[in-house]
Each structure stands twice: as C-alpha cells, then as structure tokens.
Amino acid sequence: MTAAKGLHRSSPMASFVLLLTFVGVVLAVPSLIVEGAVLVGVVCLAFVSGERPAQSLRRLRFVLLFAFVLFVAQTLSIRTGQALVVSPLRITTGGLLAGGQMALRFLVILSASGLFVRTADPDRLAQGLIRAGVPYRYGYLFILALRFVPFFQDELRSVREAQRVRGIDVSVRSPRRIAHAARYTFVPVLVSGLHRVDSIAISMKGRCFGLHAKRTASREEARSGWSLVALVIAGLAVAVAVLAVRGRWV
C-alpha cells in the first residue's frame, strides 16, 4: 500500500477552498498569464500528489480535444483586433487571445475539479461541511455526487471489458456509430446507475435519513501540513489575480 502524497494528505475542506479559488480566479481574471500559471499549478499539484503524467493525459484526452474545439471556435468567431490572416478565414489577434483564454479556462476548471475528486475523501469532506454549518442533507447530496464519479468510471470500464470479450466494437468513428455506442455502452451504465440509486434510497429510508435536524461528526479532522500548503497556494493565486487586474496583464 503506497503512502498518501500531496493533496491526499490535505483536509478536504482546504482542498475545496483551493478548488474554489482556482475556479474563481480564472473566471474573474481573463488573462492568459494568470490562467496559464493556475494550470501549471494544477499540474504540479497533481504530480506531487502521485498522479502519473501518462495516466493524467489519458484521462484528459477528451477535455484537451474539446478545449481545442473551443479555441478554434473562438478564434474564428471573434473578429476584433489586428488581422493576421484574411483569406480564406479571417483570424485576428483578438480572436486568438479570446480562444486561448477560453481554452485555458476550460482546462483549469476541468483539471482542478478532477484532481479534487481524486484526492478528496468524500466522508471527510462531508464531516467538514457539517462542521462548517452546512445542513447534512445538502452535504450528503454533494458527497453522493462525488461518489458517483468513480462509480460510473468503474461501470464504464466493466461494460467495455464485457463488450470486448463478446467481440462488440463500440468505438465512435463516424456519426452513424454514435447511436450504436449509446445502445451498447450508455444504456447499460445508466441502468446500473439507476440500480445503485435505488439501493441507496432504500438504505437511506431504512436508516431514517433526515429524521433529525442535526448530525454529529464521527471523528475529528487531524491537522496536516498539506492543508496549510493548500491554503497558502490559494492565497498566492488570489494575490496573482489582484496583481494581474492592477497591472492589466494580458
């Protein structure tokens, strides 16, 4: 069993504050420098948390593809600024800048959210939210959503392995195969998810979930140096954002 590294050792609440800070900074400050710096920070945190570069790229391959689509769409649709290419398509400096900002913003939000989901313990996060004053009913809904992310990933992997054993090819290589892939992949995963939801609802009803207005935490959160590191990084991100606004960074 490998020892926990990086954000795995941080408290979920500190990681949650870091996630909100990253997302808030890239949404509030439209700057390539700031968004690029935040993205580099997310990549570094993933590396020190034990993420393998090849595995991370494989997880983000569709995110990278969609970010490229956003970049191209913004570049071709925005015509402000100096024209760099006139024919056959008009490309301007304003379009390139807007496309880069949109793509980086999308990458930061998705990569930071994925890192948070993979490193934060849902049970500890639920207890932290309860201590912070969030009603445990709403906190449990948030944690349940986090738990379903790895569940659907495992179910999708199991369905694809079963299809591979049966010789079914569900790769999407043309628009016609989208319905084929949805029939043999999306439907089984959805049915499995509905069964899981049904079992959770029966379990909650059997335990009289929501009967009491308040709920106590089962354990105290241990202090960790990585929690302080996460909060310091969040503070640095805010400081960089303030400097970018005052200095009008591009």
Describe the protein's architecture and organization:
The protein is an all-alpha fold and 250 residues long. The protein folds into two domains: 6-120 and 223-247, no CATH class; 133-206, no CATH class. Helices cover 72% and strands 2% of the residues. The protein contains nine helices and two strands. It has a two-stranded antiparallel ribbon. Strand 1 (83-85) and strand 2 form a beta hairpin. The relative contact order is 0.15.
List the helices and strands and how they pair.
Blueprint: H1 12-28, H2 32-48, H3 53-59, H4 61-77, E1 83-85, E2 91-92, H5 93-119, H6 122-131, H7 136-165, H8 176-206, H9 225-247
Antiparallel strand pairs: 1-2
Briefly characterize the structure.
With 250 residues, the protein is mostly helical. It has helices at residues 12-28, 32-48, 53-59, 61-77, 93-119, 122-131, 136-165, 176-206, 225-247; strands at residues 83-85, 91-92. α1 packs antiparallel against α5 (93-119), α6 packs antiparallel against α7 (136-165) and α7 crosses α8.
List the total number of helices.
Answer: 9
Q: How many β strands by DSSP?
A: 2
Largest sheet: 2 strands, antiparallel
Using the alpha-carbon principal axes, give the shape.
globular
Question: Could you estimate the helical fraction of the residues in percent?
Answer: over 70%
Backbone CA Rg: 22 Å
What is the topology, as strand order, of the major beta sheet? Answer: 1-2
Which residues form runs of ≥5 with pLDDT under 50? Answer: none
Count of discrete domains: 2
Strand content: under 5%
Helix/strand/pairing category:
mainly alpha
Average pLDDT metric: 83
Terminal-residue CA separation: 45 Å
Helix-strand pattern: HHHHEEHHHHH
